[in-house]
C-alpha cells in the first residue's frame, strides 16, 4: 500500500508498503529501514528546533527535526525494528532560494539531525543533501530500496 508522507508528517509501514514524500527543499527527509523485520518509516520535518514554537511542537511534533526523529525511531521499534539493524538515510536539507538564503533552514535541519544521530550512535548509510533542487523520495519496504528523484532547477526569465 502506498502512503504519502506530507510536509510535517511521519509514516511507518511494513513489508509491501511504499512510503513517498514530495517537495523536499530545505526540509529533512529521514528514511529508516530494518531489512530483517522489513519495517521502516519516513519523516518530512520542516524546522530544526521545536523551542521556537512549543505549542506547534506539541500539536505536530513531526514538523520539527528534534522531536520528529526520535518519534520516527520509536514508531519503527514498535513494529519490531531494532536499532542495531537499522539502515538510516537522509535527503533534502537544501537551499531552494540559493546558498545565500538568510535563515539557512536546510543547513540547520541537517546539523540538528547529525547531532541527534551522533548522540545515539547512529550512522547515516546514505544521504542526498543540499543543493537548490526539490526532491521526491520513496521507500519500498519490501526491499528497502530508497529512490530519490530530483526536479530540475527552475530559472527565472
How is this structure best described in words?
With 157 residues, the chain is of the alpha+beta class. The chain has one domain: 60s Ribosomal Protein L30, Chain: A (2-Layer Sandwich), CATH 3.30.1330.200. Helix content is 22%, strand content 33%. A 5-stranded mixed β-sheet has the order 2-5-4-6-7. A 4-stranded mixed β-sheet has the order 1-3-8-9, with no helix packed on it. Helix 2 crosses helix 3.
| pLDDT averaged over residues | 93
Proportion of helical residues: 10-25%
Molecular shape? globular
- Report how far the terminal alpha carbons are from each other: 41 Å
Order of helices and strands: EEEEEHHEHEEE
Strand content: 25-35%
Main sheet strand line-up:
2-5-4-6-7
CATH architecture: 2-Layer Sandwich
Instruction: Please compute the radius of gyration using only Cα atoms.
Output: 15 Å
What tags apply to this protein structure?
60s Ribosomal Protein L30, Chain: A, globular, alpha+beta, 157 residues, 4-stranded mixed beta sheet
How do the helices and strands line up, and which of them pair or pack?
Blueprint: E1 2-5, E2 9-14, E3 18-24, E4 28-34, E5 39-45, H1 54-59, H2 65-78, E6 87-92, H3 105-119, E7 126-129, E8 135-140, E9 146-150
Parallel strand pairs: 1-3, 6-7
Antiparallel strand pairs: 2-5, 3-8, 4-5, 4-6, 8-9
